[in-house]
Design brief:
globular; 46% strand; 7-stranded mixed beta sheet
Length: 124
């Protein structure tokens, strides 16, 4: 079974940093593009960092220069390093995977594959 398990969320003060991790099953990681999305209370789920078919990541404007996504293929793990956090970053963060051919950037509609259960990030 495909499994995505996020971790690393927590509470942090504004200006602080967190690193999220997403552990993926070997099948998912080797054959799919990966992404981070987030959803704040009362808001729609939106893309934060998505992997394109060429292995590069596209970022939402609101996180550019502050967040960095990366993957470690030896550990089947996707990361999201978040720095200079602000209260607007408070949300549930989700890891997603999709066939690279189906990916349409940050558009949620292009990510209909697999999702994790999420990890909460709270910035005060």
């Amino acid at each position: 079974d495909v499994q995505l398990v996020e971790s690393g969320g927590g509470s942090v003060q504004a200006g602080g940093s967190l690193r999220l991790s997403c552990d993926a099953s070997k099948y998912t990681f080797n054959k799919h593009c990966m992404a981070w999305f987030r959803q704040a209370p009362g808001k729609e789920r939106g893309g934060v960092a998505v992997e394109e078919g060429d292995g590069t990541f596209t970022y939402a404007d609101s996180v550019k220069g502050r967040f960095t996504a990366s993957r470690d293929n030896t550990k089947n793990t996707l990361y999201l390093q978040m720095s200079n956090l602000n209260p607007e970053d408070t949300a549930m963060y989700y890891c997603a995977s999709e066939r690279c051919a189906a990916v349409t950037g940050l558009d949620l509609l292009g990510w209909q594959g697999y999702w994790g259960q999420g990890t909460q990030v709270t910035v005060s």
